[in-house]
Amino acid sequence: MGDHFQRIVDVEVSVDEAGPLAARTVEWLVEQGVITRELSDDGVYSPSTLEGYRPGPDWQRAVAVPEAAWPPGPLAVMAGRDYYVEGQGTDEADHATCPRCTSRTVITDYPESFEPDEEVWRPFRDAVDAWKATGEADVTCPACGTAVPITEWDFGSGFLLGALAFDFWGWPPLADGFVAELGRQLGHRTEQHTGKF
Prior knowledge:
The chain contains three helices and ten strands. With 197 residues, it is α+β, with helices and mostly antiparallel strands. 33% of the residues are buried.
C-alpha cells in the first residue's frame, strides 16, 4: 500500500528566510491545534528529514472532511534548497520550458519511454545540484542558446524547486481553505504535490 503524502512547497522564499519562516509557521500551526511540538519518525520519508510533528487536538480543521477522517501521521517540515517530485519513485522532471523562448525540452518522452533521456536531463540535474549547494546555476536552452537560471525554468507542477516545504504524511485530503490560510501565513506563492513512498 505505501505511505501517502500531501506536500506544500513555498517556491519563492529565500534560503536565508526559510528557517525563520519555518519556525514561525510551526508556531502558528501549534497555536491552531493542527500539530503539537512532539516529534515522531513514524511513517515519515521526506527528502531531508525523517521526523515530523505529531498531529494536534484540532488537526481536523486542516482537512476537507473531518467527520470521515482517519488519524493522520506527522507533518515534516523541510527548510533548505531542494527539489520536490510529485508521485512515486521518480527523481526527474518530465519536461522543462524555457522562460525566454517558451521552447519545451522533453526529458521523458511518454509514452514512448518511461525513463529520462540522460543526455537531455544531465544539464538540468547538474544545475539543480549546483543550485542546492550554492544558490545559483544556469542551464543553456537547447533552442535559443540563452543561459537561464535553473529556478526560472518551468518544469510543470510535478517537479518543484524551493527552500521550504511541508509534508503531511498520511493526512486525509487537506481543505482548500486551510491550504489558502497556510499560504497567507507563508506570504509567498505555493504549489502542492501528492505522492506515495
